[in-house]
Specification:
With about 675 residues, the chain is α+β, with helices and mostly antiparallel strands. It contains 16 helices and 38 strands. It has 2 domains: about 350 residues, Purple Acid Phosphatase, chain A, domain 2, CATH 3.60.21; about 270 residues, 5'-Nucleotidase, C-terminal domain (5'-nucleotidase,  domain 2, Alpha-Beta Complex).
């Protein structure tokens, strides 16, 4: 019988442990050897760059204006696509391209109604952190709530007027922004660039699998016109440079960190016209800056690759290349996920993009609807809704605050065809505000006629439910938010009759030129001219739009209280800060002729006006101020809007409109008889 001595038993266990540890160290060193030994040429790796953009704080698939679920949008469904892509691609990076914190009722609630505290993470960032992002940039709408709010909710101390020096709760990923700096010290508000490090799977030419490090540098850019669009909040506080200039300034710094790849994260789209430093959509020009390996786009609320860019020079709109650089723009409102599949190959000791095996795509959360059936949408990720449940319920309670009632249906289904019911309350509220405030600030303008301009923000761009529709009955804050979708502030500009006509001519570009002799169908609306730039002006004026004439020559009559408007006749026109400061490139509007810049939001001004009225009737709303010039056409003139709304058109007096074809996806084609 053998008895093991306790000491010998302990030594034996120690020897065994050391053996296990030693073998582990040897194996680890063997694995680490791949990290330090040069990779053979021909080694390959596929890396997917995943992109969200223009989420606009649409966290859930929910319509706060109609108080019902909407499965066609929402970040919670984008997360499902993200998780699917991560299962498909072993090597992924996830980025957000901006316009993240603003754009929904929930966002307004956290910024305006009950602002989040320093120790409270914004709901959209909480949701994003649960998924895990590698980086992001800021879009133009990040600045809508002001620098103090942006500084706080991003957890970024800023040396600007109103900026916080505290380290508040912010997202758990780096925000980079190279072209916006503090006017005090010239330093970028956010870090201009960051370097990310991950271990990825790669394969040698003989098929051996390796785990190797990859360093990815990211540079961020916002649209330069933010200084115009949010002039009141940014003027004198920040400086903004062009995206090309910012890239040229900071790329050498980033390249000095020896990244394997550099990704430009631009909140902007594509425009191949001659470059200017204040260009809104500078992606085409940014792609031409040497050193950028991939380009993430946004802002345009479109998809790239896609047919919208098929005719742009040096652009492959099918495989997703801009001037030879792989690029993607992943939609908006959480409807899509952008994916760049980068095929990397090792050449001369460096990773090189194999363009032949690289492509981009936009993955939608919903497949198109077919007639009689709802869209086929992916299920929401179940982890997201519980994270924001409390603030979601609070936002619903907030927008249900009563402010009055209406006897008139206020809708934008036919706003392009002459139904101004959704715009007339906005114009009335804006004009009332300025008529009361302007004489106090500018008594010399007390006798100048005040007009008001408003555009329908919701005209179907986001789908068949993307229209304003306030039914007769109670009005709540939700109704005001539905009527006035964006958190703009109010502004008024001084102009003259010539400026007024130029304003209306620019707005009339919303329409295609119609040929009366053509026998086939002609589309009335030019989809490239966005609905929110079709300003309709009221306040005692009447005007005619002749769509048979070329753009710039369509306003054929223009009167004020029945008398022709003269070129020198003075006017004050009320609008929003975006338009007054140059948004939409309207002639004569660059911020230089603003006579009133209100700190009050246009939406809040509208809500207070409704509260004072208590009840809206047809007598409170100025009739439509314009009409189409009579035009007899040989073929039908058509447009598309929500299906089954002909009765709405008739109630608004548009008896010359009738539905032609229901497409089965919630939309329909209508015809308009321009001769009536």
């Amino acid at each position: 019988m053998s008895v093991r001595h306790p000491l010998l038993s302990s030594l034996a266990r120690s020897s065994l442990a050391w053996g296990i540890l030693a073998s582990g160290l040897i194996a680890g060193c063997a694995s680490l050897g791949h990290l330090h030994q040069p990779l053979p040429d021909g080694t390959r790796a596929d890396v997917a760059m995943l992109e969200t953009t223009d989420i606009h704080s649409n966290i859930l698939g929910y319509d706060y204006y109609k108080l019902k679920a909407d499965p066609t949008l929402g970040y919670e469904r984008t997360v499902t696509l993200i998780r699917q892509a991560r299962r498909q691609f072993p090597n992924t990076f996830l980025f957000d391209d901006g316009d993240t914190i603003q754009g929904s009722v929930l966002a307004d609630y956290q910024a305006l109604a009950r602002p989040v505290g320093c120790d409270e993470e914004l709901a959209i960032y909480r949701a994003m952190d649960s998924v895990g992002y590698d980086g992001a940039t800021a879009g133009n709408h990040e600045f809508n709530y002001g620098l103090p709010f942006l500084s706080q909710v991003t957890g970024t101390p800023m040396n600007v007027e109103g900026g916080t020096s505290r380290h508040c709760a912010g997202p758990h990923f780096p925000l980079v922004l190279a072209n916006v700096a503090s006017a005090r010290d010239g330093k970028p508000l956010f870090k201009p660039w960051a370097v990310l490090r991950k271990t990825i799977e790669a394969y040698t030419p003989d098929g051996s699998k390796l785990e190797v490090p990859l360093k990815v540098g990211i540079l961020g850019f916002a649209p330069p016109p933010i200084l115009q669009w949010d002039q009141q909040k940014l003027n004198g506080k920040v400086t903004v440079s062009g995206v090309v200039e910012a890239a040229q300034k900071y790329l050498p710094e980033l390249e000095a960190q020896h990244p394997d790849l550099i990704v430009a994260v631009l909140h902007g789209g594509l425009d191949d016209r001659p470059y200017t430093p204040d260009m809104e959509n500078g992606g085409w020009h940014l792609a031409g800056v040497p050193g950028i390996d991939a380009l993430l786009l946004g802002h345009s609320h479109g998809e790239f690759p896609g047919p919208r860019y098929a005719d742009m020079r040096d652009v492959d709109a099918k495989r997703g290349f801009v001037r030879g650089v792989p690029a993607v723009m992943g939609g908006f409102f959480g409807k899509d996920l952008g994916v760049i599949k980068l095929a990397l190959v090792r050449q001369g000791g460096q990773w090189v993009v194999d363009t032949a095996d690289t492509h981009s795509e936009v993955r939608a959360i919903c497949q198109p609807a077919v007639k009689g059936r709802a869209p086929d949408c992916v299920a929401p990720d179940p982890a997201i809704a519980p994270l924001v449940a409390k603030v979601h319920e609070a936002a619903i309670a907030y927008v249900n605050t009563p402010i009055g009632d209406t006897r008139v249906r206020l809708s934008s289904y036919f706003a392009d065809e002459g139904d101004m019911t959704a715009l007339a309350p906005i114009n009335a509220a804006q004009a009332d505000y300025v008529r009361r405030e302007l004489p106090r600030i500018h008594p010399e303008l007390a006798g100048v006629p005040v007009l008001s301009a408003a555009a329908a923000f919701r005209t179907g761009f986001g789908g068949p439910d993307d229209y304003t529709d306030v039914a007769p009955g109670p009005l709540t804050l939700r109704s005001a938010a539905d009527l006035y979708f964006y958190p703009n502030t109010l502004a008024a500009v001084k102009t003259d009759g010539a400026g007024l006509k130029a304003w209306l001519e620019q707005s009339a570009r919303r329409f295609h030129r119609i040929d009366p002799a053509r026998t086939g169908e002609q589309a009335l609306i030019d989809p490239h001219y966005v609905g929110y730039n079709f300003d309709q002006i009221q306040g005692g004026i009447a005007y005619t739009i002749d769509v048979s004439k070329p753009a710039g020559e369509r306003i054929t009559t223009l009167t004020y209280h029945g008398k022709p408007v003269t070129a020198q006749q003075p006017f004050v026109i009320v609008t929003n800060n975006y338009r007054a400061s140059g948004g939409g490139h309207f002639p004569g509007l660059d911020g230089g002729n603003i006579v009133l810049a209100s700190p009050d939001g246009a939406r809040e001004i509208l809500a207070r006006w409704i509260e004072r009225k208590r009840r809206l009737t047809a007598a409170d709303l100025e009739p439509t101020s314009w009409h189409f010039a009579p035009l007899k056409t040989r073929g039908p003139v058509v447009f598309r809007t929500a299906a089954g709304k002909q009765a709405v058109a008739a109630a608004a007096g548009l008896n010359h409109v009738h539905q032609l074809k229901d497409h089965g996806d919630g939309t329909a084609t209508y015809a308009i008889d321009l001769s009536r």
